[in-house]
Design brief:
There is one protein chain. This protein is of the alpha+beta class. The chain has three domains: about 110 residues, RNA polymerase II/Efflux pump adaptor protein, barrel-sandwich hybrid domain (OB fold (Dihydrolipoamide Acetyltransferase, E2P), Beta Barrel); about 50 residues, Dihydrolipoamide Transferase, CATH 4.10.320.10; about 190 residues, Chloramphenicol Acetyltransferase (2-Layer Sandwich), CATH 3.30.559. About 30% of the residues lie in helices and about 25% in strands. It is built from nine helices and 18 strands. It has a six-stranded mixed β-sheet with strand order 9-18-17-16-12-15. α7 packs across α8.
Length: about 400
Amino acid sequence: MATNIIMPQGGQDITEGLVVRWFKKEGEPLRRGEVICEVETEKAVFEVEAPVDGVLLKIVAPAGTKVPVFAVIGIIGAPGEAVDFDLPGTAPAPAGHAIEIAAIRRRAADRTGDPEKNIASGRARRLASEKGVALSDVSGSGPGGRIVAKDILLHVEKRKLSVEALRGRSTSLSPMRRTIARRMGQSKQTIPHFYATVSADVTAVLERRDRLQRETGADISVTDLILKATALALRAFPAMNCRFQGDQIVWLEDVNIGMAVMLEDGVMVPVLTRVDQLSLGDLAQRSAEAATNARAGKQIGMEPACFTVSNLGMLGVDGFTAIINPPEAGILAVGKIEKRPVVKNEDEIGIRSMLTLTLSVDHRAVDGALAARFITRIQHHLENPDIL
């Protein structure tokens, strides 16, 4: 039976992708997990793997083709199998993505009635997109106040003069920075954030980590320890492993966690899958590979996550509050490890390695009491290394 290859979404709020190149030709055999093509969205370049063994029966979307996410881009089957493709551009959706697809289709339908299409010419809209200009900031000189191309160019010149008067310079936003600006603005405007902060004594877990690294040679980072502790807490509190989408809350069975990776011009959040089932050594290897791919502009794997971990401790930050990556339910902000005097056993003071953790949750999906129990469970896991 033929299997469709679909255009991955590659991040929330992405509606289309570009097929960059195919590594296989029609009729060539392939193995499950083998990289068969590369696609690009405004966030990154993604490698698409074959979902099954077989041969590439048909390339539906050749290199250079833009298609909607979840559309069919190729078909895999048995040698000589007839290709039955009655619905071009569509694909059966994975069960976990059904609500995301519906939201994307609603957004696409909404855009067809976008009033900006009536107040600006097609060329003006293209110029505005290229120059990073919001149409709402431009006065139209065309019939009925319609914005035309020269209005965009005039606005850009005025903006340059304004910047020069301030003895500065301006630059258009990169696609990644535009996406970050849109999504973080959307998050703060639409999500009621609730915060909870704890300090974790990580003295024992760091000592255990150092011993494990000497014994096994594994390069286990503080972020890996946080990811594992968070994954175990998500497994213990499945109500936290959710996404708020539209008017529904969706709970996922797998514990998939996003890991914020700093880039020169922004941030990417590769998703690590089934983290609760990984050993610390395997997790360290997976997280290192994900970070390397992210810095190279590639993101392998398209699984949805419900939670993200963001660590700025290596930059000397004591603690911070992070903005939720919608539609996820929460994000954990990790500060630096520092030596502090701590009262132990009521009347003893000792110097311990302490770590500040701040949890941000979507209060529409997660109540304060649940958030408190969740973050204190992460704290407990970090303070009891046998659990990890």
